[in-house]
């Protein structure tokens, strides 16, 4: 069974903006895909549709065989439990401890906010949170406030929180964009090690083409709301991807008669 199946997906907003045209791809269980595209290519809208925060105008998305349908709230809630997110800006609660941030990752599973608060969490959840922190190498910072640690450490905490969720699919939205190159590669190494260990499916948005080719088994390129590249990374080089980021003006200057539609 494919973990993520996107079929003929389109999204047009009320102001007439066509963010997605006819997006069609499948990501198999355990596969690591990197999603590339310029700002405005449709990447963010695609992620919002996969997680059920936007209703597509056309087409469908299935995650682990379950249709993503905003109108079916109980089904959507269950499916979201299987989707872990890693964000560019970490999305931690800065004024609480690292340990507490990781505990919050269990909220979707336990169903009650109070059960994820450190003083009331079960011994099993507390142990699991420490194991998740240990896996990302930060168990020694469990009591530290999240606003007192570095950017690279914050992203590691975010990965630990994602692990606490026990997802089957991971969507990583520019997870290294806020980090320096060294910290960014360390985070990518860690993230990819973990998804391999647990046979998780990952779709990761990146802008750095060299990093995309290093980590992605497969590259999907979006341009103006369409899939224009879908290939194994062994078949690609960085120069094959440069045109994804060309603007219409740049193409016209190069002698093209037709700009992006």
List keywords for this structure.
six-stranded mixed beta sheet, 32% helix, 261 residues, four-stranded antiparallel beta sheet, disordered C terminus, alpha/beta, 9 helices, Rossmann fold
SSE ordering: EEEHEEHEHHHHEHEHEEH
Q: What is the H level of CATH, i.e. the homologous superfamily of the largest domain?
A: P-loop containing nucleotide triphosphate hydrolases
How many domains, as an integer? Answer: 2
In terms of DSSP E residues, the strand content is: 15-25%
For the sheet with most strands, the description reads: 6 strands, mixed
Write down the overall mean pLDDT.
89
- What is the chains' assembly state? single chain
The CATH topology assignment of the largest domain is: Rossmann fold
CATH class of the largest domain: Alpha Beta
Tell me, briefly, the overall form. Answer: globular
Structural class: alpha/beta
Distance from N terminus to C terminus (CA atoms, Å) equals 34 Å
Strand order of the largest sheet: 6-7-8-3-9-10
| Helix-residue proportion | 25-40%
What does this structure look like?
The chain is α/β, with parallel strands linked by helices. The protein has two domains: 1-82 and 170-251, P-loop containing nucleotide triphosphate hydrolases (Rossmann fold), CATH 3.40.50; 89-166, no CATH class. The protein is built from nine helices and ten strands. It has helices spanning 43-50, 73-80, 98-103, 107-110, 123-135, 151-165, 181-197, 209-215, 248-253; strands spanning 2-12, 18-28, 32-36, 58-63, 66-67, 83-86, 169-173, 201-205, 218-223, 226-232. The strands form two sheets. The chain has a six-stranded mixed sheet, sandwiched between helices. Strand 9 and strand 10 (226-232) form a beta hairpin. Helix 5 (123-135) crosses helix 6 (151-165) and helix 6 (151-165) runs parallel beside helix 7.
């Amino acid at each position: 069974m494919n973990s993520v199946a996107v079929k003929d997906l389109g999204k047009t907003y009320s102001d007439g903006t066509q963010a997605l045209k006819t997006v069609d791809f499948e990501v198999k269980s355990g596969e690591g895909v990197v999603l590339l595209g310029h700002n405005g290519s449709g990447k963010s809208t695609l992620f919002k549709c996969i997680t059920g925060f936007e209703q597509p105008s056309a087409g469908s998305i299935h995650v682990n065989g379950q249709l993503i349908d905003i109108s079916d709230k109980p089904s959507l809630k269950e499916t979201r439990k299987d989707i872990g997110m890693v964000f560019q800006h970490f999305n931690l609660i800065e004024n609480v401890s690292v340990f507490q941030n990781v505990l919050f990752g269990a909220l979707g599973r336990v169903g009650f906010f109070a059960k994820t608060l450190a003083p009331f969490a079960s011994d099993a959840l507390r142990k699991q949170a420490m194991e998740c922190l240990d896996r990302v190498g930060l168990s020694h910072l469990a009591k530290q406030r999240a606003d007192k640690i570095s950017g690279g450490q914050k992203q590691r905490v975010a990965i630990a929180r994602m692990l606490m969720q026990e997802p089957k699919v991971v969507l990583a939205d520019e997870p290294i964009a806020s980090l320096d190159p060294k910290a960014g590669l360390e985070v990518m190494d860690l993230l990819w090690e973990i998804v391999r260990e647990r046979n998780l499916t990952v779709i990761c948005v990146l802008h750095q083409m060299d990093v995309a080719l290093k980590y992605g088994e497969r590259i999907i390129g979006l341009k103006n709301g369409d899939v224009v590249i879908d290939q194994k990374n062994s078949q690609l080089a960085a120069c094959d991807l440069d045109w994804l980021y060309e603007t219409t003006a740049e193409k016209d200057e190069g002698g093209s008669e037709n700009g992006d539609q």
